[in-house]
Amino acid sequence: MVLCDVCGRALPSEAAAGRHPRRPSLCRRQPRCPLCAAAVGCDELRRHMETAHPEPGPPGCRSPGAPPECPFCGEAAGRELEEHVRARHGHLLGAPGTGERRGDGRVCPRGSGLATENRPGDKVATKEIVMYLDAGNGEQLYECPMCSLTCTNIQILEEHVDLHLEEHNFSEGGNIRDLELAQQLQTEEDEWQRSEEEKREREEFQKLQRQYGLDNSGGFKQQFLNNMEREVDRGRMQPFEYHKRKADMMESLASGVDDGRTKTSGVIEALCKYYQSENKDVRRVWLSAGVDHFHSSLGDRGWGCGYRNFQMLLSSLLQNSFYNDCLRDTTLIPSIPKIQSMIEDAWREGFDPHGASHFNNRLHDSKAWIGACEIYSLLTSLRIKCQIIDFHKPTGPMGTHPRLFEWILHYYSTDNEGGAKVVCTSKPPIYLQHQGHSRTVVGIEEKKNKSLCLLLFDPGCSSQQMQKLLKQNSDGSGLRLLRKFVGSLKEKQYQIVAVDGVLSLEEKAARCRASQVLTSEKIP
Predict the structure, then answer these.
(1) Structural contact between residues 135 and 126, judged by C-beta atoms closer than 8 angstroms
(2) Residues belonging to the active site
(3) Short-list 504, 497, 452, CA closest to 312
(4) Which H helix or E strand runs over 452?
(5) Per residue in 275-332, pLDDT tens?
């Protein structure tokens, strides 16, 4: 037995059930629509339900063959849908290109766009709120575009979506704040590194200033007094000696003449006598003209080697009548402050302006170190012909400078080619400079094995040490203070200042102009 699904009548078979809806006369009662109570036959009831009451589905879906319905009021509009919307709901339509916007600022849930009004300062959603009908009771439901939560009240759902957007914006804002914080920390780190680098550079600069006597801590006089006071405090000097030496120092500074306390004379003559009788391993020896040794004192210890070597060189020139005309205004060995003033005078004449700027054109009353360039400027200003030779890199194995030794040998042996074992030349000593120190070359030995050995006066050797050379022992042990073999000179660079005659006034002026960019002869 089969029941009619429209009128509920019991039918004897499937075939009867198939014929029953098409034969209204077979129905015992006239069926009515359960939704609108319209009286229709069984067969017409199906068509009525499909057309008048289609099954609700997802938004935008409708039954096949059903006329299109209005997205605002749900009425079937058929082909006149567009005219219907414009006539009935035109006030809800937005301007072209702005979307289907309602009068309250919300976009139609069946359209595309925002579900909340987009005013300045409002949060902007990235998805639309979806509306559809509940299949059970036909109630309108709204779905959250962020988490798919359904809600029957669109205002509540809008507040729910706003929470999503606030959380999203907070997350974005947090990322922005994190980025800003990272940038700020990086900026602070860069500033700190720059500050530390500048601090380090200042400390290095101040260290160099102190090392080279450019820290405005006083000059020869101040250091001399400070060191004497320290000697008195340590019990190494009696107060009466302090006052006596202070008076002598003040007199020397006033006259501009060295007091001679650090001078040792007669060493070259003693060496000449020694080599005449020494026959062990020296084949030949060349010695400079007579020269006095000067060593550092309490006033210039640690920075005065350049000035002391100039005093040695000048002592030799003063003993040579060939230079009398150049040195007629300098007949005595000047003190260190006086030498500083003489170099400043040379700068004022125009010699080596670049070097002068390095010292801010001021040496007097400072502990500034001087080198080959300052010696050259001073000698040239006195019309003494000289040259700077720059041995700017090693020329032998293990960082040695054999070319330096060969040049010095050629300097002393030129015009002295005789067969004598000991050659006391008329050549002035040579100023020898390297990083941090300078010495004076007073001769050169040639050994029987053809090796060379320089003889150097060092301002660091005291008068007591140099006095031993005047009482030379037969074994020559005192010469260890003077001898320097090729393997002993391994500085990266050496410069020498060698004297070679006198200059005319015109030659002096020409060299002054050339010293605007001071150059040297480089070997190799």
Answers:
(1) no
(2) 305, 437, 458
(3) 497
(4) strand 452-457
(5) 988 767 899 999 999 999 999 999 999 999 999 999 999 999 999 999 999 999 999 9
